[in-house]
Each structure stands twice: as C-alpha cells, then as structure tokens.
Amino acid sequence: MDPVGVITGTMAPLPRNNCDTDQIMPKQFLKRVERSGYGQFLFHDWARIAGGDLDPEFVLNRPEYQDARVLVSGPNFGSGSSREHAPWGIQDWGFEAVIAPTFADIFYNNCTKIGLLPVTLTEAEVNRLIELATAMPGAVITIDLEAQTVTAGDRQAGFEIDAFTKYRLLEGLDDIGLTMRNLEAIEVFEQSRPGYLPSLA
Predict the structure, then answer these.
(1) What single DSSP character describes residue 75?
(2) DSSP state of 77
(3) pLDDT 10s per residue in the chain (201 long)?
(4) Cα–Cα distance between 168 and 165 in angstroms, integer?
(5) What is the spatial distance between Cα 16 and Cα 20, in angstroms, rounded to a whole number?
(6) What is the DSSP annotation of 162-193?
(7) Is there a contact between 73 and 16 (Cβ–Cβ < 8 Å)?
(8) Kind plus residue range of the DSSP H or E element containing 21
C-alpha cells in the first residue's frame, strides 16, 4: 500500500451516526474479488432516490464535494459486518482519510491495512469540521500523521493512534509488506527444514 504522511484536501460532510457497513457497501456488490471498482457503489442506497436515479442532494453527488479527500461523519462509523469491501469502496472513491468520534474496531483495523487513515476526534471537534465543510465546501483540511494533528482553518486538534499502526501507515506496510521485511529470515528457515516435510516449492 502507499505510505501515509500528510493528507491535504477538502472534506465531504456526512453527519450521520452509526453508518454501518451495509450502507457503506451494500451486500449485493460483494461479488467481486478485486479491491478496485467499489467506489461507484459507495453509499449506494443513500445516494439514490426511489427508482434508482441519483439524489442530487446527497453529499457525494454534489459537484462541490467531488474532489473531497477526507470523509467526516458521526460516531460508531463502520459498525455492522466485518466486510473489507467497505473501506475498499471509500478508498476507491478517492478518500484518503475518514474522521469520526468513534469507529467500529474491525472497520478501523481494515482501514489501516489498506492505507486508509481513520482519525478519531472528539464529537465537538467532528461537529465543527462538519459545520465548516457544509458552510464552506472548499475549506481545506490537513492531517499530519507524523505529528498526529488535524488542521482546518485556524483550528488544530490532536489525535491518538497506536504506535505500531502509525509505523505501518507511515512506511506503507500492509500484512504482506511486513512479512516481506523478514524475507531473508524466512528463506534461511525454509532451507533448514528437513526435506521430508511438506513444501510449497
């Protein structure tokens, strides 16, 4: 995955609580095996009116938010099932970070494994960002992972993140990348195994 350092861009405000993974990426779109191509289905049911036409009032359908790089939403974001397709869809749409007061644990971890940065701020801080993005769609936000800060306008807030997760994101290391860093030791181990044991070679 790509390293995460400083993310700068505009915000898309989604002031809804308990955004569950079935709303983020509905179950009928989980038939693909690739990670790409899910962005078009993001918030599918919320983004459409009866009959299937796009709802021009939904935030992701509004032209002023098409280039947003940070999604800002309410508490308990990503609750529901553990489907990895939810963060895949958010990232594929073009978001690089999601800010919320709280996240479902599995969703949070799934985000960090693909380089999508989940940022936890207080509810008051999140509400201020939602208000800013709603009133000024072009307002720019900067998230600095190294410094663990979020800056928008004249306001700055800090956020907490596990040290190992931070390291992985800064270095761009998913699970495979972490494993590959031990490739030499793995090869030494494989060469030392008795020949009668099962092998993938």
Answers:
(1) S
(2) B
(3) 999 999 999 999 999 999 999 999 999 999 877 888 999 999 999 999 988 899 999 999 999 999 999 999 999 999 998 899 999 999 999 999 999 999 999 999 999 999 999 999 999 999 999 999 999 999 999 999 999 999 999 999 999 999 999 999 999 998 888 888 888 887 888 788 888 888 766
(4) 5
(5) 10
(6) -HHHHHHHHHT--HHHHHHTTHHHHHHHHHHS
(7) yes
(8) helix 21-24
